[in-house]
Design a protein that fits this description.
By secondary structure, the protein is an alpha+beta fold. It is 37% helix and 21% strand. It has one domain. The structure holds zinc ion (2 copies).
Length: 322
């Protein structure tokens, strides 16, 4: 029997099937995400990645190889003599663009500081400076957590939790902005850690109490305490007392935390499309129009869908090495 409040590591833990978890598994390596970011900016060659990101050659080579084997990048030869090849985004990699924009939006809104967002986007199709927004594919209106419900899809269920390497927090976060400020990097500092993201996901599912979160995720109490502490200090969660005798607390999403919804569903959409075959584990319903929807990223000025090729960036990286 388990002692009240005690923790015993179960033999095998099952987690809710959710594309977000699978997607984070691929993307929670911060360097991988930054390489993909540079690809979306048009970088293709080893030397370009290296000079922008300042990674050791070996680390960069390993990451590029990994991203290629995961199907996000492909190698293409651009010179025969000497033989040289470059890395290009596959369709799967290109499809990360809405997620990238959702993280960018979040960082711009909450983490940009006094100097404002470091990156300005222009939509080529309408020619205007724009902010991409996540919208309902059915009615075209913006979506947020308060107006979305979910239900199990055909791929719902649980799958064995793979524990490997997840308990170790990625220590690379401090390096993310070494070369240039970036709202995506700032957002990743908060949610680019597997457990932080999973705790947030549970918060969106309405799981708010320590014991409940621990049970759902099969997370060790020390790690959960650490992540909850971080998320509270970063302003994502607020610790609220819900009972006096005995004193009990729960963790609720703040306004800032609720805005993580868009990166979360962008991950969900990407994972559903590329990692779960034809059976999405979750189906989202937009309560404003009453229809099931896919999250779509549209331009806030013209309302048309945005994609990487149709965007121009104006970089405000004035003092990148400062
Ligand atoms: Zn709708
Ligand atoms: Zn536009």
């Amino acid at each position: 029997m388990r002692a009240r409040g005690g923790y015993r590591r179960p033999r095998k833990i099952f987690e809710r099937s959710c594309s977000v978890g699978r997607t984070v598994g691929i993307l929670c390596n911060s360097w991988s995400f930054l390489i993909l970011r540079e690809c979306l900016f048009g970088a293709r060659r080893f030397q370009t990645f290296q000079s922008i990101l300042g990674l050791p050659r070996q680390t960069l080579a390993i990451r590029l190889k990994q991203l290629t084997s995961q199907g996000l990048l492909r190698q293409a030869q651009y010179s025969e003599r000497p033989q040289r090849s470059e890395y290009r985004l596959t369709e799967m990699g290109m499809d990360l663009y809405p997620l990238f924009l959702a993280l960018l939006n979040f960082g711009d809104k909450w983490l940009a500081g006094k100097s404002g967002p470091p990156l300005q986007l222009f939509h080529r199709s309408c020619g205007r400076a724009c902010t991409p927004v996540v919208a309902c594919s059915h009615c075209g209106k913006g979506v947020d957590a308060a107006h979305t419900t979910y239900r199990d899809g055909p791929g719902a269920g649980t799958s064995p939790l793979n524990r490997t390497k997840r308990n170790r927090r990625q220590s690379e976060h401090t390096l993310l902005e070494k070369r240039r400020p970036c709202s995506v990097a700032r957002s990743l500092k908060i949610i680019g850690d597997y457990w932080s993201f999973m705790v947030n996901r549970e918060a969106f599912f309405g799981v708010r109490k320590f014991d409940e979160i621990q049970t759902k995720l099969g997370i060790a109490p020390t790690i959960l305490t650490d992540r909850l502490g971080r998320l509270v200090s970063e302003g994502i969660l607020a610790k609220k007392k819900y009972q006096d005798l005995p004193e009990r607390f729960e963790y609720r999403l703040t306004a800032m935390g609720k805005d993580l919804y868009l990166p979360l569903i962008a991950m969900l959409r990407w994972g559903d499309r590329w990692l779960s075959g034809d059976a999405p584990p979750l189906i989202l319903t937009h309560t404003i129009c009453g229809h099931d929807f896919d999250p779509a990223v549209i331009c806030n000025k013209c309302g048309k869908p945005v994609e990487a090729r149709a965007m121009i960036y104006e970089l405000h990286y004035k003092n990148p090495m400062a």
